[in-house]
C-alpha cells in the first residue's frame, strides 16, 4: 500500500478479497479476532482463490486489524493452507503407516525428483502440485498416490514416469486408474 488514506486502503483490501470474507470481517468488527476466526477467514479466501497470496494475507490483516505477522504465522503453521497457486493436477502421496512401510517415501522422493519440487510446491509449468497426506482409506492398495480424485495403487518408484505421462498427455474422459 502506498497511501495513508484508510478509505483507499480499505477499498483495495476489499477488492483483493472474496465478498463473503469482507462480510465476515465486517460482521465481527469490533470484537477481537480469535485464531479460530482467522483460520475461518483464511479458509474462505483459499476456497475461492485456491491459495493465499501475499496481497490477500495483507488485505486480511488490514481489514481485520490483525498484525500481518499473525496472519502469515497461521497461514504457514497449518499444513492445509497453500501459499502458492495450485497446479492443474494435485498429487497427494499417502505417507500413512501402511503405505510408508511399503515404500511411500521412495515414491515421494521419485516424484520430487521428476517434478523438481518439494511438498507444498507447484511445478513451474503449473501442471502439478505435490502434497503428502495420511491414509486415504485404501490401505489394501498400498502404497498409493492420489492424483486429483483418482487413487492409483500399488505404485512403485518405477511407475511414476508413466503416471505423470498419463496426466500430461491425458485425453478427455480417460480417468481409469493405473493398474500397476
Ligand atoms: S496408509 Fe495409505 S491408504 Fe491407508
Task: List its salient traits.
180 residues, binds FE2/S2 (inorganic) cluster, 4-stranded mixed β-sheet, alpha+beta
Describe this structure in words.
- The protein has 8 helices and 4 strands; from the N terminus they run H-H-H-H-H-E-H-H-E-E-E-H.
- Strands 2-1-3-4 form a 4-stranded mixed β-sheet, covered by helices on one side.
- The protein is elongated, with a radius of gyration of 20 Å.
- The site of FE2/S2 (inorganic) cluster has 11 residues, from helix 6.
Give the percentage of residues in beta strands. Answer: 5-15%
Number of helices: 8
**What is the assembly state of the chains in this entry?**
single chain
Shape verdict: elongated
- The portion of residues assigned to helices is 40-55%
Write down the secondary-structure element order: HHHHHEHHEEEH
The radius of gyration is 20 Å
Mean pLDDT, nearest integer?
Answer: 89
Bound molecules: FE2/S2 (inorganic) cluster
Secondary structure tally: strands = 4
Residue windows where pLDDT falls under 50 for at least 5 positions: 172-176
| Biggest sheet layout | 4 strands, mixed
Q: How far apart are the first and last residues' alpha carbons, in Å?
A: 52 Å
Strand order of the largest sheet: 2-1-3-4
Q: What would you call the structural class?
A: alpha+beta
Amino acid at each position: 500500500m502506498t497511501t495513508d488514506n484508510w478509505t483507499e486502503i480499505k477499498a483495495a483490501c476489499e477488492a483483493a478479497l472474496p465478498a463473503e470474507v469482507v462480510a465476515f470481517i465486517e460482521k465481527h468488527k469490533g470484537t477481537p479476532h480469535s485464531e479460530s476466526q482467522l483460520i475461518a477467514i483464511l479458509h474462505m479466501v483459499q476456497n475461492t482463490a485456491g491459495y493465499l497470496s501475499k496481497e490477500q494475507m495483507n488485505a486480511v490483516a488490514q481489514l481485520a486489524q490483525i498484525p500481518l505477522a499473525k496472519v502469515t504465522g497461521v497461514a504457514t503453521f497449518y499444513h492445509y493452507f497453500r501459499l502458492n497457486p495450485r497446479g492443474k493436477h494435485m498429487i497427494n502421496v499417502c505417507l500413512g503407516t501402511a503405505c510408508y512401510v511399503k515404500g511411500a517415501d521412495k515414491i515421494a522422493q521419485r516424484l520430487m525428483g521428476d517434478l523438481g519440487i518439494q511438498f507444498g510446491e507447484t511445478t513451474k509449468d503449473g501442471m502439478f502440485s505435490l502434497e503428502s497426506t495420511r491414509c486415504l482409506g485404501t490401505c489394501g492398495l498400498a502404497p498409493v498416490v492420489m492424483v486429483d480424485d483418482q487413487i492409483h495403487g500399488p505404485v512403485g518408484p518405477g511407475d511414476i514416469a508413466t503416471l505423470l505421462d498419463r496426466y500430461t498427455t491425458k485425453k478427455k474422459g480417460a480417468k481409469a486408474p493405473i493398474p500397476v
